[in-house]
Amino acid sequence: MEPRPRSFYVLSAVFALFLLFLYGPTLTIAILSFQGPGGGLTFPMRGVSTYWFHDLFAQQAVGDIWGSFGRSIVLGLMVMVTTVVVSVMGGLAFRKRFTGSGVLFYLIITALVIPSILISLGVGLMFSQADMTVHWATSGFGAQLTWTLPFGLLIMFAVFNRFDKSYEEAARDLGATPWQTLRHVVLPIIAPSLIGVALFGFTLSYDEFARTLLTAGSYNTLPLEIYGMTTNVTSPVLYALGTLTTLFSLAIIGIFLALALLGSRRRARAASDAGKGLL
Amino acid sequence: MNPSAARLSSRRRAAPFPESVAMQSRPNLAGWLMVSPLALVLAVFLVAPIVLIAVVSFWTATEFSIVPAFSWENYDFLFGSSVTYRVFLNTFKYAAIVWALTFLIGFTVAYYLAFHIRTQTWQIALFLLCTIPFWTSNIIRMISWIPFLGRNGIANSALLSWGVIDAPLEWLLFSDFAVILAFVHLYTLFMVVPIFNTMMRIDKPLIEAARDAGASGPQILWNVILPLTKPGIMIGTIFVVTLVMGDFITVRFMSGSQSANVGRLISNDIALLQYPSASATAIVLLATVLLTIGILLRFVDIRKEL
Question: Where do transmembrane segments lie in this chain (chain A) (predicted)?
Fold first, then answer.
């Protein structure tokens, strides 16, 4: 191997600093959430305890953290499933040109770049004008889809751009119906990337703030609840909650990555039997 | 498409006439059916809200309700107020500064990952390390700057103990500095990912050819890598610029309500139930963002870059 140039060491240092910049603040509040009962929002630590975590589980003076956590999870799962199904169908449809595909593509880009407050305001107005009450599972759900679907579709476009069509041709030549081709050839091949779409769907919904702000109605989701806390809670209990929900997000990411890894291992083991057949 | 597949499809195209007619109409219908859920969601939750905002922007408001009308009042007020221009200018200022910083950091990080890390396993591992924060909560990531930037925060106590400053700096938290820091912290990933993606597709022999032809390191960077990375840079730019221009929560939280951008103007109107006025501002903001993106899209074909 050729020796590392000097720039490698400089850039490694820059990269390490970048990681510190990314993770440092989160690690700091993780440490500070173990403040002693008399501790404040910044260092020094006044003792080490799990007081603030207990405080989270105790009777709540303000708000409804656990209720909002539950709603966020349910909403995240709803958005995740919908994003995967709609993105796959959309991705399949976009492989062929159809009337209006250009317009629809630009709508997807618009959904991606539109300031989230417009979605919040517009959906909120629409529901109030139609005399419907905004609710996280209806208006909130739809508003979040405008953010998760573009990501899901862009991933599907990228996947199908790299898709080798000869597999389908082969299946068709062997007499498979379109549905059989889809079920037994296309879907198994794209399955790993669906894990990615699902991860985007869940986490983007779980953390979404701006698009849910005016569309969640009287029951808050977790990010709304946390934002509400920032204005009236000035104790490390805020950090304890932040640490817990970050840990939850990391666990979700870990599960999805493990699934992806497992899938690719299984594929590698059960891959091609070409050349091993009877000659 | 490989040769045999090309042959196959050309054979199908040569199929008897009735079948080819059937094949032309059927995929169109199937495509429409498959894309209908997507079209429905976008129609109800994207197009309809935009149309409604456009309509309401011509309505008038009383203290308690909004009244259908056709009046230019909201736009007159918006364009007649010097606050509007200041706030729009401020929004562009945030976008420009944050763009420059995220581009510099994002390009450097992507370059390091793509050209200095030699094994794919490490590349993927380090890339994931960069992207994981993207899947965690933005609100929490903003809150997590408080212990750093506060009056008695880590930054101030460190600077004090090193003797760099005599009194704690007041402008660290709740200032434009904090706003820009938070933006860069939240959105640099949106630069790293697309730039890394295009860099990974650069043909390595091209760089060797440049080196063989006598190009120096900086020359390769400037004349080979940078032009080939342009599509990724453009996509990253679109993300960062639209996220910063459309933001209202980061500015409010990190500036302690002391700075304003267009998003905050809208959310303040909403808080006062002045929906028509909020809608007019929203329409102008949307037009500004779409115009910016339209210009940027002239430099890149997104569908080709995926």
Answer: 73-94, 103-127, 147-164, 185-206, 237-262
* Contacting residues for A150 by C-beta, under 8 A, at least 6 apart: A108, A109, A111, A112
Q: Could you give the ipTM of this predicted complex?
A: 0.86
Cα distance between the two ends of chain B: 17
Residue A127's domain comprises 63-231
Spans in chain B with pLDDT lower than 50: 1-24
Task: Round to whole Å and give the CA distance between B79 and B59.
Answer: 16
At B138-183, the pLDDT tens digits run 888 998 888 888 877 888 888 888 888 888 887 888 888 999 999 9
In a domain, A279, yes or no: no
Contact A43, B147 (CB under 8 A): yes
B276: closest CA among B85, B69, B81, B82? B69
Would the pLDDT of A273 be above 80? no
Does the distance separating the beta carbons of B139 and A209 come in below 8 Å? yes
Res B22: pLDDT: 42
Burial of A189 (0-12, 13-18, 19+ CB in 10 A): middle
Closest CA to B293 of A261, A115, A188: A115
Nearest chain A Cα distance for residue B80, angstroms: 22
Q: Is residue A28 located within the same domain as residue A17? A: yes
A59 interfaces chain B, CB cutoff of 8 Å = no
Task: Domain B73-305: give its CATH code.
Answer: 1.10.3720.10
pLDDT of residue B73: 83
Residue with the bigger pLDDT between A31 and A45: it is A31
Task: Choose among B5, B282, B306: nearest Cβ to A157.
Answer: B306
Among B45, B130, B152, whose Cβ lies nearest the Cβ of A42?
Answer: B152
Do the Cβ atoms of B9 and A173 come within 8 Å?
Answer: no
Query: Tell me, what's the pLDDT at A272?
Result: 60
Domain membership of residue A274 (yes or no) is: no
Give yes or no for a cis peptide into A44 (omega within 30° of 0): yes
The pTM assigned to this predicted structure is 0.86
Same domain, A83 and A30: no
Name the region of A176 (left: φ>0; alpha: ψ -120 to 50; beta: rest).
Answer: beta
In the predicted structure, residue A32 carries a pLDDT above the cut 80: yes
Judged by CB atoms closer than 8 Å, whether chains meet at B46 and A107 is answered as yes
Residues of A within 8 A of B288 (CB-CB) are none
Residue A183 predicted with pLDDT over 80: yes
In sign, the C-alpha dihedral spanning A94, A97, A103, A106 is positive
End-to-end Cα distance, chain A = 42
Q: Which of A29, A84, A121, A232 to mutate to test the interface with B (most CBs of B within 10 A)?
A: A121
Contact A99/B28, CB-based, under 8 Å? yes
- Give me the amino acid identity at B122: W
What span, in angstroms and rounded, lies between the C-alpha atoms of B233 and B230? 5
Largest Cα separation within chain B, whole Å, is 88
Res B101: pLDDT? 97
Which sign does the torsion angle of CA A134, A138, A141, A143 carry? negative
Number of domains in chain A: 2
In chain B, ranges of CATH 1.10.3720.10 domains: 73-305
